[in-house]
Amino acid sequence: MTAPYLVAAQPQDSLTLNSVKGDFIQLRDVYKSYGEGLVVMDHLDLDMRSDDRLVIIGPSGSGKSSLLRVMMGLESIQGGKISFQGKPYIDGTARGAGKPLDAKLQAQVGMVFQHYTLFPHLSVLGNLILAPMKVHGLSKVQATEKARVFLARLGLESKLNVYPSQLSGGQKQRVAIARALMLEPKLMLFDEVTSALDPEMVTEVQSVMMQLAEEKMAMIIVTHDMHFARNIASRVVFCANGKVVEQGPPEQIFTKPKEPRTREFLEKVLHLD
Amino acid sequence: MNYEFDFHFLTGNFGVLWDGLKVTLQLALISNVVGLVLGFGLCLLTLSRWFFIRWPAQLFIEFFRCTPALLQIVWFFYCLPMLFNVFIDPITMGVLALGLNLTAFNAEAYRAGVQAVPREHEDACVALGLSPWQRTIYVILPQAVRTALPVLMTNGISILQQSALVAIVAVADLMYVGKSIATEAYRPLETYSLIALIYFALSLPIAQLVQWIERRQDTALAR
Lengths: 273, 223
Known about the structure:
The complex is a heterodimer. By secondary structure, chain A is of the alpha/beta class. Chain A contains 11 helices and 10 strands. In chain A, α5 crosses α6, α5 runs parallel beside α7 and α7 runs parallel beside α8. Helices cover about 80% and strands about 0% of the residues of chain B. In chain B, α2 crosses α4, α4 packs across α6 and α6 runs antiparallel to α8. The termini of chain B are far apart. The mean pLDDT of chain B is about 90. The interface between A and B is medium-sized, with 24 and 18 residues.
């Protein structure tokens, strides 16, 4: 494991030079590691505005997914603080903490995962109305009505009573997005949502995400699809070894990256495409 | 073989047999309710992250798996009243012994079902804001039951057979009344064959149902 030493050699000011102000989400000095060897968030600072669509790119193991999982409350941090909508959200400095402090704030975050996480024993409708009924206390009629609206928006109204096993991969992911939207989140997290899909199904999922972007939904997206990243991002964040190496508008990152590490990474992945 | 079958003696005994059958069905059905409900609870305990919850639960399971059911029944009937000074009616005691035995076996079946639920579903539940209890009831339990159903049903049939063991402690179930009739009428062959047929007729449809469910699950997986 040589990675942590490489990090130490990085000029610290590259971070502050590129930092962007925003008070929707603020990560300050966030630290997370799995044991000693693997530091996935190394005193990370990151800001986000409510109209931002952050796309996080970087080599695997750079902490991209960890950032999303921490924001969702699936994993804890061991240092630093995160605020969400101006309120303290996660505090890694307190002992035994590092998970969301406020369930109400946590409920305003929605997440879609790489692998389909639809519940196979419930129909599409059942998947959509479970949380609105049990968590938000909606009646079945209200929740069903809402589900119809969301499914129609994503072009899935005919699939209301179908079970997940009868859907294609792309349809499953669209239903998963609809399920998250049912809870009216203020922030949507997308963790490599098209990575497990057959190529011909990627577009239908991406166009749903583009639709959300047009509706000004705040999103953090982790993806390996650089073309899509360029299209949807308001800002691209390049992470490596648990740090933000460089961030900026997609045009800048993809055409004239400042940091050699960013350039090196982009050359590799774009060459492969 | 020059034995002459004679079923005439049974005509006067239908009422007794029917009463015995009712007791057997009562034992089997209530034990199954106990086993299905407590079994899931016990399964959750064995999956606990705390050793002091997990360990006694596992011990409970091993106790019932590693001792003969006949011994468990005898122990419940004779030792429980002596130890705790409780005297419960024989059928309830039978249900208790058989139900707890089934609980142990069903807990293992449920556990396989719970462990087959993908890890990602846990994450999805957190993302949807479901509480741990809601996750268990609405997401994990239904999926676990589906996977475990054939085993749960097989365990259910086997408890119907095992219920015959309570005859030894004088609970008037089908086996017990059969034994009395056989002795009174000196007709063991006819009586025991008939009793066997009744048990068989009760279990076979359920066994067939299990096979049908398994076939359906196989084709569902193959899709």
